[in-house]
Amino acid sequence: MPLERLTSFLDGNAVRYVLVQHSPAYTAPELAALSHVPGKEWAKTVMVKLDGTMAMAVVPASSRVVFDLLKGASGAKTAELAGEQEFKDLCPGCELGAMPPFGNLFGMDVYVDAQLAEDAEIAFNAGSHTEMVRLPFADFQRLVNPKVAKLTRTA
């Protein structure tokens, strides 16, 4: 995939986006700083299991998923962090930890923290640790149809 499938999907849906190639970066805060994107606009994809089914929780770079909030948003009885071995084959071609938040391309539900919906744009890994995409949040929401809810708490 990752980049070709993602950009083909975006192009096919007439989405205007910016693609940036950068030196390798592995943490969400590091990526936000490297790409000059405020941490609250950088979307990190966290792989989770909701009642045993894989899903994506998308939160700002500087935040962590609060699993009780995720359970409430999803209606799941259990919500937990997924292990790498559980999802490594679910996003073909993507580097671990660099999955784009397009669960619809991988057959997964997507839950997005409400803080990300407050900004005009969203930025995220494009399937590798050296590529990122930035696009209007409205287009992301239209294409992915995520459930937007409070998934994090501010300190």
Write the layout of secondary structure elements.
Blueprint: H1 2-12, E1 18-21, H2 28-34, E2 43-50, E3 53-60, H3 67-74, E4 79-81, H4 84-87, E5 109-113, H5 114-117, E6 121-125, E7 131-136, H6 137-144, E8 147-149
Parallel strand pairs: 3-5, 5-8
Antiparallel strand pairs: 1-7, 2-3, 2-4, 6-7
Q: In words, what does this structure look like?
A:
This protein has helices spanning 2-12, 28-34, 67-74, 84-87, 114-117, 137-144; strands spanning 18-21, 43-50, 53-60, 79-81, 109-113, 121-125, 131-136, 147-149. It is α/β, with parallel strands linked by helices and 155 residues long. A five-stranded mixed sheet has the order 4-2-3-5-8. It has a three-stranded antiparallel sheet with strand order 1-7-6. The N and C termini lie far apart (37 Å). β6 (121-125) and β7 (131-136) form a beta hairpin. It is globular. The chain is built from six helices and eight strands. It has one domain: YbaK/aminoacyl-tRNA synthetase-associated domain (YbaK protein), CATH 3.90.960.
